[in-house]
Amino acid sequence: MLHHVIFAGTGSLADPPGSSVLIAAISWLEATLLGTVATTVAIIAVASVGLMMLVGRVNVRYGLTVIAGSFILFGASAIVAGIQASLGAGDFAAIPPTPPTREAPALPQPPQPPAGYDPYAGASVPSR
Questions:
Q1: Angle at which helices 60-74 and 36-55 pack, to 10 degrees?
Q2: Using an 8 Å Cβ cutoff, are 63 and 50 in contact?
Q3: If you ran DSSP here, which 8-state letter would residue 94 be given?
Q4: Where do runs of H (alpha helix) occur along 17-75?
Q5: b (16+ CB within 10 A) / e for 112-124
Q6: Which 3 state secondary structure label does DSSP give 84?
Q7: In whole angstroms, how far apart are CA 33 and each of 20, 40, 52, 73?
Q8: Which of 36, 58, 86, 103 could form a disulfide with 52 if both were Cys (CB 3.0 to 4.6 A apart)?
Q9: How far apart are CA 76 and CA 90, in angstroms?
Q10: Nearest Cα to 34, choosing from 85, 75, 62?
């Protein structure tokens, strides 16, 4: 006697069963890496590297690398949002056309000085 079992597909391949556990674990890891503990560690690291830079025990390039790394770590979501916004702005149909440019009016010419005019002759030079 054969028993046929029919599986009803309730999920999709994009969201297989058990993936909620993985998503929860990744969310916990993200909260841990970007949460209060990570912020405290980054503050202590930047403060200690800054103090060691002031004393002269650490190269300035290394200190700036630590500081830039912490900015990139905690600003990653804003950086990605900015990149996505700039790439999403590629919709050229939404950009209004530029108005036609007009030529600037010609500037009036200054009057010509009289013959024998010396612009450098001041009050100290006697007139002839």
A1: 160
A2: yes
A3: G
A4: 19-34, 36-55, 60-74
A5: eeeeeeeeeeeee
A6: helix
A7: 20, 11, 25, 9
A8: 58
A9: 22
A10: 75
Q: Give me the pLDDT at residue 126, please.
A: 63
Q: What is the DSSP letter of 90?
A: T
Asked if 70 and 47 count as a contact pair (C-beta separation under 8 A), the reply is: no
Q: Are 70 and 45 in contact (CB under 8 A)?
A: yes
Nearest to 42 by CA among 14, 11, 75, 10: 75
Encoded tokens for 57:
């025990």
Spell out the residues 6+ positions from residue 42 whose beta carbon is closer than 8 angstroms to its own. Answer: 70, 73, 74
For the four alpha carbons of 57, 58, 60 and 66, in that order, the dihedral sign comes to: negative
Q: What are the pLDDT digits (tens) for 77-86?
A: 788 888 888 8
